[in-house]
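Work package 3, deliverable 3.1, input record:
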Amino acid sequence: MIFSTIRHFITGLSLVVSSGVWAHGQFAVEQALVGKASLIAGYSHIDNYDNVLWQVPGVLMGGEAFGAEPGFILREASLHFTLGSEGGSFATAELSSHGHSGESGVELEQALVGWFSNVDRQAIKLQAGLITPLFSKAYGQHASVAYFTRKPLIYELIFGGHGSETGVNAQWQVAVSEHSNVYSGMEIWKGEKLPAKSGDSPNAIDAFTYWRWHKNESFSTLGAWYYAGKAKQRGDTRLDSGHSHDVPEETSASPDIRFTGDTRVFGIYADWNWQFEADKFLELSSEYTLTDISGTLQDETRQSSLDGKHTGLWAQAALGINQHKVAIRYDHVVLDNSLNGTGASLLADSAKLINDHEPNVLSLAYEFQIDSHLRLRLENRVDKVLPDTFSELMINLIWSRPFTF
Amino acid sequence: MIDVQKVFMSLLIIIMLAACGESQTTVDDGGVNATAFDWQIPSNMPLPIEPSDNPMSQAKFELGRHLFFDRRLSGNGTQSCGSCHEQALSFTDGLAKSVGSTGQVLARNSQSLLNVAYNATLTWANFSLVTLERQALVPLFGEDPVEQGITDANRDDVLQRIIDEPRYLSLFEDAFPKDLNPIDVANVVDSIASFVRGLVSFDSSFDRFFQGDTSALSTSARRGRTLFNGEDLECFHCHGGYNFSDSTVDRNMTFISRPFHNTGLFNIGGTGAYPEDNSGLIELTGKPSDMGKFRAPTLRNIAITAPYMHDGSMSSLGEVIDFYAAGGRNIESGPNTGDGRFSPFKDGFISGFDLTEQDKTDLIVFLNSLTDNTFLTNPRFGNPWEAL
Amino acid sequence: MQALKEYFKTRHKNVSRTALSISTMLLLAACSSSSDSNSSSSNDSDSRIEIPITIPFSAQASGLSVDCAATFTGLGVANASGSILDFRFYVHNVTLISDSGGRYEVTLDDNNYQGGGVGLVDFQDMDDTCSGAVASTNKQITGSVTADEDVVFNDLEFTIGVPANLNHEDPSAATGHLNILGMHWNWQGGYKHIRMDVAVVGGAVPSWNFHLGSTGCTPDPTDPLNTGAAVSCDRTNLPIVSLANFDPASDTVLVDYGELVSTSDVSANAGGAPGCMSGQTDPECAAIFSKLGMDVTLDDSTENYQSGTQTVFSVM
């Protein structure tokens, strides 16, 4: 009984964490210091894996997209605090550590101040500081909360897998009816993170809107978002010093390659969560993204224009019965590029943009709730992102727990 | 609400279908790679620039090859281009300073002609000569120093020798089909330039490694390569890129630079001066800061093209490496006394470095891997007059 | 007999009258036909005609005419004796200035020594550095101007050398006077605007050479034809010669080689190449350049690099 209540609470909590206390259009922040700690440690086995820099042909990569990490690894350790006060102001800080290629430093993931106000059926929230993006649930979600350890492919390729950045945002939530609300927002970023690169700040903005309603036991979400970022002389920051493995020049894009131009991404998201019985649910979600890239590609001596159109789709289904959860996700990306100019053919080659295959991933996960805070997750990832297919098997231990002071 | 769910499901399906499609990358280089010549180089290597008034053709290349190795193309009939540019030595002559047809010793060392089509400027220190056509006029007709020694007085005689050689008529007619009388000086120059432009090859061990054969470079060579590309030695700054020279251009480039560098070989009297007859770019510009500036030549086939430097004053790669490790050359006696390490005009990247014996060996092994042996023997580039 | 004389007298009068009228008509016809090309219809009131112009040149040193056989004395500060090995120079932009200040550009004829608006003045009467066979010379520049038939020319102006737009074309494909190997300056991609070489008797160097060429010539970064002809020079070194009181009908342009080298020592090499090869750092160039009104240390971007007065060319 207690277990099932706790389980129910945790499932509900995950909904709450991701969508706010939205049923009545209200924002809410505790006035005591609350937080959440989470940790994922695991082991990954990959068949015939060449530990080189993850370079997907057809797209300019960067950020923190490092691909699969075999062996024992501390995938994530995160500590999240929020402290509110009456009057609506609050501060949030988040420390996290992500294991990449042997390095596992602690970094400040979020450090922001905010203010919110609830009036009648509407609420407004403003935030400023170092913030994790809100425009996409799948992008902002921690691996400890999601069904899978890796984010959908489009976020790793276009956004570098990792997004917190300095900026400001405004969020607005309005309860449309007793059972539904609309949650919208706009974010303005300094524009340092992929796909933007600082030139004249601010360099990146996004806007989003989500319509959420529930009827009996099913909770549905339908949303759309738009991101636009400017880059100026953007190179692949993964090639900068600080990573332990020697970057082999022949397989990665040339470090001299720089992109200057605009990246615009449009996404549509749909989610349906059906609690068909106590401790049993089915969740289906999907997102479609359309990315448009236009600008100039340069290295020290050559130049050409670059136009990219990339479409991405992921669809996910999850079933939870008591302590067990299974999930499946299919990720598919189509990468189209067009280069024009005297340097086009050589730049396309050295930037690793020549591509005629559609990267896709099939992920399967099984999760077992050991106790109220600890889960065991087995994941299998059939990775067809690179021209060679490989299969990854992960076993992860996920611990997460909210706390108050 | 079943209806909403149905709507949802259909939306999801529609979305999934919308993402179907095939990846493709289209590249449009505006026809910049159009060429009538079969360069015979790997397809991912850029092509050299062709001047619009002398586009490459196999016929011009073949005619140029005959003229290049023909001793009759000199005033006194004793010397051909090939006399100072022998194929087996990667088109150098193994001498510190070359000798002209009348016996005059030149001030400078004969340069290798491998991939010289990619040179941003030609000869050791001249920013005016950017095409092989213009450069060819210097050894053919120059008066100081006299190389081929063709003058106003003997030009007609030299041309007559070409006209009288039975092999040439059809070669000229094939190369210049639109000319009524194709055997003239302008066509001689254009065809020699075409031959030299076609002396391209990317078939060293390093090239094979670069094209994907990871066994082509030994561990020692790879270590040498890391040293070469590292920030301690800084070799790659002046000798980097696919042609191992920063004075490189090809037809796909937008940003072209034609650099020259002073490496601290001389510092006569502490003024930074180089010997008066061989002081580099300053001879053209008169600017004091151009004293001792020379073009960084390619390191391809460097193991074959000793002696080194613009005046051939270094005879081995070991000596060259020691010189760079010291950050300049200290000449302790004689008319050129001076410590090049303290030259006021020395390039900022020549600051010296520490090298262990093993490092030095690895570096030399890497430099040796830049040898393209097929180029040295390929009959395509060889002397057609051997029997004579 | 008397009747015959009378007859011839009358005939003679008639003939001479006829001859006079015929010659006048011919003259008028010649004048009007040659002004056809100048579309005199657009030139309203004034009667502009095409006037043929010949500008003769003469060269001397120490009172002797310049040719291969002459031995000059008193050359330079060392009072050296010597003879020429080469003596040629190009001219362009030949302009006559009338007494009312009107400028009339001379359109140069096309012949063996002239073409494309550039002419070669050549005093070297034996080829192969004055040791070979007899060679032709060219001591005049011919052309025509379009002007009023009663124009009075007062001054002459011309520019030495091959103009910048022709200086970097392919010399091996050039024709006639622009295809002389000895006047090419291939190492800087251009021509020798002036070539005056002298061999000094008992000199420390075999020859003392003055080669004037454009220096600091760098290829333009955008050369879409990739021919190497798109070049711009820091120092075009094309001195302008202005001569007052010059009447082309009666005067000659005198080139005084003795004056050119009067402050130089042609018997030795003070540095760089023996003589002056237009190098800014060659100590022997300063004196030579200033004789031509140029400052060797300044480049074209400097306003007064050609502000000096040249003393080599004068009116004779």
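Chain B has two domains: 58-201+375-381, 205-371.
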